[in-house]
Records
---
Amino acid sequence: MSDTQHTPVTVLGLGAMGQALAATLVQGGRATTVWNRTPGKDAALVAAGADGAATVADAIGQHGPIIAVLLDHASVHATLDPVADQLSGRQVINLTSTAPEEARELATWAAAHDIDYLDGGIMAVPAMIGRPGASILYSGSAALFDEHRETLELLAAADYFGTDAGLASMYDFALLSNMYAMFTGFLHGAAMLRTSGVPAATFAERAVPWVTAMAQLIPEYARVIDSGDYTAPFQPLDFHKPAVDAIVRASRDAGVALDIIAPIKNLLDRQIADGHGRLAFERTVEELA
Ligand code: FVH
């Protein structure tokens, strides 16, 4: 069964993200009820056509799925626990960022209260919602995802990863780990070049094409990891060690802190000390997992 233009939706939480999601639902023609703990944040949405509810109980009085966009795992429980009985037989889509185990805990809590539960990880900032480039990763109830996919696609590209409610969150945080490593690498490089009087903007002109070119190697890294065979390296750990040692020396000489680069050196050193120096750099995943 697919949803229709007339599917009503409730949004709990009108922070920056909740407001963006609710506004997109209203623009998409969905009858949208909104609630926020602190009153007053619904003014623009109500002016645009949303129904403002004074209490959570009032907000979930409508039919249709309930989207929670709150601060964290604790705030989801603080909001939903008091109305758990009223939620029996209803559908909850939790777009609050929670760790995978927290998402699984919420799915178990929901099942105990006969609530259909779908978890989501938002890969976008509020300004991207409803625009190309935004995506939301989902896992949990397949039936809920299938029934409301059309509505979810209004918000962002919607991808479903299976019935494990924690898997979307795991993807979310894996992607964010990749992002943070990339940005902190840029910050380390910018700090190094600053000591030579090079502005970050000048470094960025080099960094973007370099990082883009290096990213093309990721599928080959993945192939080696999935094969589990690290014995035919393109460049072994022994090859990378002098380069990383040199980056550490260059950073130290320039007075740049080693917080970003030292853990990478430690990973290399540990594997080489354990006799893995002739194996591929990708073996590092075995050290981490
Ligand atoms: N904003 C972003 O760029 C990121 C993008 C990726 C996903 N995150 C996650 O989305 C969740 C909501 O984020 P947000 O940007 O809307 O966050 P805030 O603007 O800080 O709004 C937080 C809302 O949560 C309400 N709230 C907090 N604690 C409670 C509670 N104990 N009970 C009920 N509601 C609570 C808060 O209400 P109020 O302070 O206005 O009364 C806001 O509505 C989040 O998980 C991000 O990690 C966004």
---
Amino acid sequence: MKHIVSGIQPTGSLNLGTYLGSIKNFIDVQRRHPEHQLLLFIADLHALTVPQDKMKLRKTIKELAALYLASGLNQDTLSLFIQSEIPAHAQMAYLLQCFTYMGELERMTQFKDKAQKQTKGVSSALFTYPALMAGDILLYDAQYVPVGEDQKQHLELTRDIAIRLNNRFGSMVTVPEPLIPKVGARIMSLTDPTKKMSKSDVNVKSRVNLLDDETLIRKRIMSAVTDSEDTIRYDTKEKPGIANLITIYSAITGQAIPAVEATFKDSDYATFKRAVADAVIGELAPIQARYHELKASPELDRILDEGKAYADRFATNKIRKLQNALGLGRKRK
Ligand code: AMP
Ligand code: TRP
């Protein structure tokens, strides 16, 4: 079975930006690669590289898993699991650190950004994070790795490490290819449409969270910042607020941007916003219903157990193979 692998960090709440930019992309990847198994995991070990609150982390792990499932991933070709439940991830991270150079890690822009933002106590795990991530991918011989543009550098390092292992040990791992969406919908903040909609924005009015109720979603969209021209046209420079609402409407309905402009050419902003709010509510309502169903049933745990069993078997074999090649311990089959 060929594998596609990706991880999601269990930090913050999912919002419309993550949904349209990331979750929908996974659904699309599954549709385009029906012969591959998608191994999707909640990257809780990655989350630990910066301080976390125990109760919040636990809650977010389950919430994320349920939301991804509820969003319509195809379960026939999905293994969903939690990273820390598979010991091979931490083992592989250590083994790969032995094949990753300081200079390579020092060049990682995400480390530089995150280390700078943190005032004290930057963990050494934040520095070695790319080796953990490379392990996540190489453990499963992933052929493709769907990620956002921001993860491209980590993927390149993963490929370098994979090639290094193969040069040294013969064919040890598959060299993965990133799948970066070309024109993925970039959803902007509702209060400052020149910034990305983000889970870390302190202004809660800047986003729609996936679990917000109908009244709140309507309120957030109706009070989204626009301009005073009162015509619906896509112009990200002059009219970033309206352009963002057009993008949201287009991403949800599948209508191309010019078609959206044409539909609303005689509408005022209030009418258009009402239509955007209706579209968002219509999209999220069934996801929320399914989410609550999953949270209340044993099904979620069953799916996570199945995902874990599939991943664990594959990953444990890979670790064993690498340990044998390295001369660690006693030779095992
Ligand atoms: P994050 O949880 O912010 O690390 O993002 C997880 C994934 O969602 C990444 O692949 C991001 O590229 C994507 N994403 C997050 N926010 C947005 C947004 N406002 N618009 C589009 N994609 C987003
Ligand atoms: N580092 C990724 C992020 O921050 C998450 C991640 C961890 C990941 N391990 C991975 C993504 C393996 C793809 C493959 O978004």
